[in-house]
Amino acid sequence: MVATNGTEVHEDSNYDRQKELKAFADSKAGVKGLVDAGITKIPRMFIAPPKSAPDTSKTTQCSIPIIDLSGIEDDPERHEETVEKVRRAAETWGFFQIVNHGIPFSVLEEMKNGVRRFFELDVEVKKQYYARDTDTKFRYSSNFDLYTAPFANWRDTCFCIMAPDGLKPEELPHVLRDIQLEYTKEVMRLGSCLFKLLSEALGLNPNHLEGIRCAEGLAVLCHYYPKCPEPELTFGTSKHSDNNFLTVLLQDQIGGLQVLYEDQWIDVPPVPGALVVNIGDILQLITNDKFKSVEHRVLANIEGPRVSVASFFTTDMLPSSRVFGPIKELLSEENPPRYRQTTVKEFVSYIHEHGLDGTSPLHLFKL
């Protein structure tokens, strides 16, 4: 027999996937609630189909670039070298780590601690923030795509819109409030720096990407990956690419993030004090495939809990009719536009309809 998510299972005519999903959502306790209940086998709704199941047998010695941002404002030669490193990383890997980025180590550590404090609140307190609709500026849930994805992921998430119209301090949980506001200011400053470097890497004016509002909106997703009793059967986050302009990721020391490079999954090892940066689908679209948005995933782990904070530069939450297409300065007879114009909201609607199904919407916008 094959279950509705494509997983081969034992014959069981009594299994009702929708009922299991609803019961999980109605509990408002998330994956952490399952772990706290002492389960030793993961529920069927989390089991990946055999063709998608984690395969960690293949290893490779490749590693994503690490770029040092120190001295780029004062040393023109160093600045030029850094722009070239960013260009190579954005064109080949779509991912790189940055060090000496200007965000104090203490702020990074406190941000991770704040996320842990929130998810380890008493479940009755956390339930006050639980929401599955997308209109809430701060919400806690598990699997935004619970009813649309082929299988559920082993993680809980809190989501907040921080720019351009961020939350009022009182709208944030007190255990996360101060550090969330401080960390957001730092990430917005860093985002401005990164978009300038990326603009220069494209041969454009340093302010080009900011000028077309790539840095205007910021959504912050705080992920909590509890320890998993059967990590070989599911994922912390399924294979996907990011439907945004740019992502800045803070991860703890447990690891599990992997990037698809030349058809192999490459570990992105945690580096103390570093942040992971990756190109999003919409940046690939407007650069006409010059920069690459690549697939990545997070393995479930038995050590847990793993904590990460993904800051998405995106404007899909804004009621904007602004259209984005390949940047005209990058086009020529030899390099005609490969994509049609679109709004960010239209582009991102795919993931809301289909969940993390491993398919990027980019192909839908190709000319």
Automatic annotation (TrEMBL):
| PROSITE patterns named in the record | FE2OG_OXY
Q: Which residue range or ranges hold the Fe2OG dioxygenase domain?
A: 216-315
A Pfam family per the record? DIOX_N
Q: Which cofactor does it need?
A: Fe cation
Q: Which UniProt keywords apply?
A: Iron, Metal-binding, Oxidoreductase
Q: Does this UniProt record's set of keywords contain Oxidoreductase?
A: yes
* InterPro entries, per the entry: DIOX_N, IPNS-like_FE2OG_OXY, IPNS-like_sf, Oxoglu/Fe-dep_dioxygenase_dom
- Enumerate the GO terms in the molecular function aspect: dioxygenase activity; metal ion binding
| Protein family (similarity comment) | Belongs to the iron/ascorbate-dependent oxidoreductase family.
Q: What is the protein named?
A: Fe2OG dioxygenase domain-containing protein
Native organism: Hibiscus trionum
Q: Which lineage do the record's taxonomy fields give for this organism? A: Eukaryota, Viridiplantae, Streptophyta, Embryophyta, Tracheophyta
